[in-house]
Specification:
Distance between the termini: 49 Å
Shape: elongated
Number of domains: 3
Radius of gyration: 31 Å
Number of helices: 13
CATH architecture of the largest domain: 3-Layer(aba) Sandwich
Structural class: alpha/beta
Helix content: 25-40%
CATH topology of the largest domain: Rossmann fold
Number of strands: 25
RNA sequence: AGUUCGAUGGUGUAACGGUAGCACCACAGACUCUGACUCUGUUAGUCUAGGUUCGAAUCCUAGUCGGACUACCA
């Protein structure tokens, strides 16, 4: 019972806060996406963190759409974000929008103007940039910095009323143009944008900047722990400055390092390029690191949550091995998927001593990891499809499969011995001839034989067909964003291999969209949404571990 | 260069002044009607230099290396 689970740094902060009675021990977090794109695995980490922390400490987690920029945001994204979060298995306390606070935020701005802490600036963006100074040199005050409170009030009201064009005026906080933190050199609070907003419509033509919206929104919702990624750490003094000057609920911001993954890219800009340049087929392409892509790929939500849990949270730079995600995926799929037989690269196997036209039905366990999964029936005949890889003319020493003179077991059926084979004009093996041992029948094997190899098969007469899409990592280098040149030069040309016809056991033809199975000795697959009633399409989620492949590579 | 955050095996993460642990990967073996799963074992780490201390991954000082910040984006 007393197994002390170590805490991450955020849990430590929260537990200390609870201990000290801060906000009466109340914990309230939020997940604040901007509805301008699709969620990816990085967001998944943040979701698991924010919702997970709330759950662990009996708190609440809001979903807040940070929609302060009408130029980039669309309702379409709101829906995809919501369904991604739900699919991950989380339920938000409230669905909220920063745009719902526009009136309140405006009033906060007026408050600051009245306190002499904000002013309307007529400078252009270029002028402002030139007065900003640099990392090493202080900035200079704007000529409009000393406008009177009354004038600022009037001007700001006129800005709101639509008297000015985009870019003509801004509202700025009056802090310190020489501050070493550039964000505190009189940051913009409001800009003019005569644009239609996906929720507030045309009611507003001035929109708050992130820095003037985020902390106050947290505060309005009485969020206790506002958790964001490390690149916002420089914003924290500003976050606190607004809350302090406004004298509102003191939400606190904490930062963690965003999680990176090998063999992919995560920035919205890069992902957008992949989509626009058609390197992938949309945001939910199974190769994309988006939540919708991973869902379509067949990654279970449980696996993603487990992954987020396993990699934890810290403040140091990191790049997590994709292999760890795949491990989590396999770990879960192993427990829940039924085993089925499918032949992806077929050659024909003929059992010369098996009666023509005879059919036998074998019963096969669905999932040895889960006794409750039951069993199914598989028809067996004289002619079977087997995997090309499972036969070799000349077998190397540790090859446990078919070769002239060698024996294997046909999974759930008989032990067979290879006698001969046929090749076509190009030298490709077309047919393998074997004899079966009737007394080795699965379930009541009296042969006394032990064979090292077991292979899967599908009856030629009963096989159904399907398409398989074999996905592999999107990039051929582990950190494409940090290579020389364009990251797109490092796209893996073999990230998708389509096999138009594979043979599947009859039972599998009943599979429905989204179903997940294990193709025995091959990998985990799921039914793709492109499937039609007369054509099933299987996505390869992830391969099985393959020690034989490693063995071969060494040789 | 200024500010700021960080540095523990190949990767991710613990150890809160007192035995450097866990997971993934890799490797070796056992088991196997999936070369899967499972099980056992092995390799491998505290950025550097000083200091404080009986004792330092942990505290202090200096350095090194890496990241972030100069959008009317979030």
């Amino acid at each position: 019972m007393s197994e002390e689970k170590s805490l991450n740094f955020l849990e430590e902060i929260i537990e200390n806060d609870i201990k000290s009675g801060l906000h009466n021990g109340r914990v309230h977090t939020r997940f604040p996406p901007e509805p301008n794109g699709y969620l990816h695995i990085g967001h998944a980490s943040s979701i698991c963190l924010n919702f997970g922390l709330a759950k662990k400490y009996n708190g609440k987690c809001n979903l807040r759409f940070d929609d302060t920029n009408p130029s980039t945001e669309e309702a379409e994204y709101v829906n995809s974000i919501k369904s991604d979060i739900e699919w991950l298995g989380f339920q938000w306390h409230k669905e909220l929008y920063t745009s719902d606070y526009f009136e309140q935020l405006h009033d906060y701005a007026v408050t600051l103007i009245k306190k002499g802490l904000a002013y309307v600036d007529d400078s252009t963006a270029e002028q402002m940039a030139s007065m900003k100074g640099t990392l090493n040199t202080p900035g200079t005050d704007s000529p409009f910095r000393s406008r009177s409170i009354e004038e600022n009030l009037t001007l700001f009201a006129e800005m709101r009323a639509g008297k000015y064009k985009d870019g003509e005026k801004t509202l700025r906080a009056k802090i310190d143009m020489a501050h070493p933190n550039l964000l505190l050199r009189d940051p913009l609070m409001y800009r003019i944008k005569h644009e239609h907003h996906h929720r507030s419509g045309d009611k507003w033509c001035i929109y708050p900047m992130y820095d003037f919206a985020h902390g106050q929104s947290d505060s309005i919702e009485e969020v206790t722990h506002s958790i964001c990624t490390l690149e916002f750490i420089h914003h924290r003094p500003l976050y606190n400055w607004f809350i302090e000057k406004l004298e509102i609920f003191p939400s606190k911001q904490y930062e963690f390092a965003r999680r990176n993954l090998t063999y992919t890219v995560m920035s919205k800009r890069k992902l957008l390029q992949l989509v626009n340049d058609k390197h992938v087929n949309g945001w939910n392409d199974p190769r994309m690191p988006t939540i919708s892509g991973m869902r379509r790929r067949g990654y279970p939500a449980e696996a993603i949550r487990n992954f987020a849990d396993t990699i934890g949270v810290a403040k140091r730079e990191n790049i997590v091995d994709l292999g760890l995600l795949e491990f989590c995926v396999r770990e879960h799929l192993n427990k829940v998927t039924n085993r089925v037989m499918a032949v992806l690269d077929p050659i024909k196997l003929v059992l010369t001593n098996y009666p023509d036209g005879q059919t036998e039905v074998f019963e096969a366990e669905n999932n040895p990891e889960d006794p409750a999964s039951g069993s199914r029936e598989i028809p067996f005949e004289k002619e079977l499809w087997i995997e090309r890889d499972d036969f070799m003319e000349e077998a190397p020493k540790k090859y446990f499969r078919l070769a002239p003179g060698k024996m294997v077991r046909l999974k759930s059926a008989y032990i067979i011995q290879c006698d001969s084979f046929e090749k076509d004009a190009d030298g490709n093996v077309t047919t393998v001839y074997c004899t079966y041992l009737p007394e080795s029948r699965s379930g009541n094997d009296t042969s006394g034989l032990k064979v090292k190899g077991t292979i899967h098969w599908v009856s030629v007469a009963h096989a159904h067909t399907a398409e398989a899409r074999l996905y592999d990592r999107l990039f051929s280098v582990s950190d494409p964003a940090n290579e020389d040149g364009d990251f797109k030069d490092y796209i893996n040309p073999d990230s998708l291999r389509t096999i138009s016809t594979i043979y599947i056991e009859p039972e599998l033809s009943k599979a429905k969209n989204g179903d997940k199975v294990q193709f025995m000795r091959n990998g985990y697959f799921c039914v793709d949404s492109d499937s039609t009633p007369d054509k099933l399409i299987f996505n390869r989620t992830v391969t099985l571990r393959d020690n034989w492949a490693k063995e071969q590579k060494k040789a």
